[in-house]
Amino acid sequence: MTTAKAPGKLYLAGEYAVTLSGQPSVVIAVDRFVTADVTRRTDDQLVVASDQLGEQNWPVSELPTLPLTDDWRLVIRTLQVLNDYLLDNGQPVTGLTVSIKSHLNADNGQKLGLGSSAAVVVALIKAVIDDYELPMTPEQRFKLAALITLTTPNFKAGSMGDIAAASLGGVVLYSKFDTEVITEWIDSNRYFSEIIARDWPLLRLERLGFPADWQLLVGWTGAPADTQQLLAQGATTVDKQHAKQLLAQNTAPLVNMLVEGLRRMDYDKVATALRLNQEQLFTYTSQVGLSYMTPQLLTLLSTASELGASAKISGAGGGDNGIAITNNPLVAKALTQAWLAAGIQPLPLSIATL
Ligand SMILES: Nc1ncnc2c1ncn2[C@@H]1O[C@H](COP(=O)(O)OP(=O)(O)OP(=O)(O)O)[C@@H](O)[C@H]1O
Ligand SMILES: C[C@@](O)(CCOP(=O)(O)O)CC(=O)O
């Protein structure tokens, strides 16, 4: 049996703008994971168990024609692509026993906003590729997972920063690839093994450091947010699309400032970049009419600011979570207590390096 795991993610900066190709963001892999176990079978059955979806059983020969309609579609599509990938690489394809377990939800099953779909795809890729002992770089893993996501019908078309974090781990400077070019390559029926060997225009995947003596705190509001609905609402008119372009224009220098701050371990620079990015996000989301701020997120930010920590809503807003960074352990302790007192649940997450 081969076991692989892929981490969840949190955005530090660049949300919404990062859905546009080439726009920078910083995304962090956190140490809660999806794990995938894979065992090769002697028959041609695919026996897949998921802690969330139950169990399914198909002959490998039926895999290419399975309908991609229900909640299984992402898992099925991943197995289809891996099957083709193994064949392209001259590997014998057999049945598999697969088990998927997600630790990215709260104990009561509620979603925490840590990107489970991306981690499921990446963990499955890693488990199968490792089981066949094939070489694959983290960047190629990202590309294969992105191709799977792009070719899963009716699946979310976000920035795929969650896939970047799940594939590389650590703190990642990420820009989305040129979607039109990659879609063109897919539509011209190129082999995925060939596509992942190419350079992808505009894609940026760079590992960044995070100062060891700073603390990253994560607060969960207890309210799940629907990222896809928020993304869809922000794209209904030409004016809203212009607003996103403007956000992107204003965000790029701030993400660069954040990256420079992290590289130089300059806390004030990082704090300023996060504050200015937060302001841009307030402006954008109010311009396009998104319910971005919630009472709990406001509490999360104001308690952090009162204690002198730099804080920001992480991800799409409307619920889920926010982050705070401090270089003072006493502030970290006080903020954790203040969040608890205000009904914000601190999540004991650290940066996951792979
Ligand atoms: N444990 C699991 N087993 C199988 N499939 C899963 C599992 N967890 C998630 N998925 C797949 O991911 C989909 C959920 O993706 P969705 O975008 O709603 O959540 P998410 O990626 O966790 O979002 P967020 O980034 O807000 O946390 C499910 O429909 C399913 O296809
Ligand atoms: C709003 C967005 O930029 C970030 C969404 O993050 P989250 O899934 O809400 O943590 C969407 C995306 O990048 O796909």
From TrEMBL:
<feature type="domain" description="GHMP kinase N-terminal">
    <location>
        <begin position="74"/>
        <end position="170"/>
    </location>
</feature>
<dbReference type="InterPro" id="IPR005917">
    <property type="entry name" value="Pmev_kinase_bact"/>
</dbReference>
<dbReference type="Pfam" id="PF00288">
    <property type="entry name" value="GHMP_kinases_N"/>
</dbReference>
<keyword id="KW-0808">Transferase</keyword>
<dbReference type="InterPro" id="IPR013750">
    <property type="entry name" value="GHMP_kinase_C_dom"/>
</dbReference>
<dbReference type="InterPro" id="IPR036554">
    <property type="entry name" value="GHMP_kinase_C_sf"/>
</dbReference>
<protein>
    <recommendedName>
        <fullName>phosphomevalonate kinase</fullName>
        <ecNumber>2.7.4.2</ecNumber>
    </recommendedName>
</protein>
<dbReference type="InterPro" id="IPR035102">
    <property type="entry name" value="Phosphomevalonate_kinase"/>
</dbReference>
<feature type="domain" description="GHMP kinase C-terminal">
    <location>
        <begin position="259"/>
        <end position="343"/>
    </location>
</feature>
<dbReference type="InterPro" id="IPR020568">
    <property type="entry name" value="Ribosomal_Su5_D2-typ_SF"/>
</dbReference>
<keyword id="KW-0067">ATP-binding</keyword>
<dbReference type="InterPro" id="IPR006204">
    <property type="entry name" value="GHMP_kinase_N_dom"/>
</dbReference>
<dbReference type="GO" id="GO:0004631">
    <property type="term" value="F:phosphomevalonate kinase activity"/>
</dbReference>
<keyword id="KW-0418">Kinase</keyword>
<keyword id="KW-0547">Nucleotide-binding</keyword>
<comment type="pathway">
    <text>Isoprenoid biosynthesis; isopentenyl diphosphate biosynthesis via mevalonate pathway; isopentenyl diphosphate from (R)-mevalonate: step 2/3.</text>
</comment>
<dbReference type="Pfam" id="PF08544">
    <property type="entry name" value="GHMP_kinases_C"/>
</dbReference>
<dbReference type="InterPro" id="IPR014721">
    <property type="entry name" value="Ribsml_uS5_D2-typ_fold_subgr"/>
</dbReference>
